[in-house]
Specification:
The protein has a single domain, classed as Nuclear Transport Factor 2, Chain: A, CATH 3.10.450. The protein is 13% helix and 41% strand. It contains 2 helices and 6 strands. The chain has a 6-stranded mixed beta sheet.
Length: 132
């Protein structure tokens, strides 16, 4: 699939990224940063985050069906952001940053995948699992 601008191509890219193993591997900037919630509370009284750099050799395929292909009972919505701050905008802008977020309502499900648009293609640079 030829990719155009980030504004028009993030959603179709994400659909393929989450179902095609080979395609996924070729669109990750290794080592990719993984951020998850820790079970411990820090000095400020908030939950700590664990950050790990995952090399290519330790990568496990992430299968996340989107839209009508979704096969889960966890209630969540897909959200596309054009910025790493996860601030909604009325229309996607050509920022060369994109986030595909899966946000659960009443389920605590919260996973986000952060991409940058480099040399004509989206590359995963960070993922966050803040599911509680």
């Amino acid at each position: 699939m030829a990719q155009g601008t980030p504004t028009t191509e993030l959603e179709p890219f994400a659909h393929r990224f989450f179902v095609d193993r080979k395609y996924q591997m070729s669109h990750i900037a290794f080592p990719v940063t993984s951020v998850t919630l820790c079970d411990t509370i820090n000095e400020e009284g908030s939950v700590s985050l664990d950050r790990v750099a995952i090399p290519r050799s330790k990568w496990k395929f992430i299968s996340q069906y989107m839209g009508s292909e979704r096969k889960t009972t966890i209630p969540f919505e897909e959200q596309i952001y054009d910025n790493f701050a996860l601030k909604p905008t009325k229309r996607l802008r050509d920022t060369r940053q994109g986030v595909v977020a899966f946000e659960g309502y009443d389920s605590g499900f919260n996973m986000s995948f952060f991409f940058v648009f480099r040399q004509g293609q989206w590359m995963l640079v960070r993922m966050e699992d803040l599911t509680d």
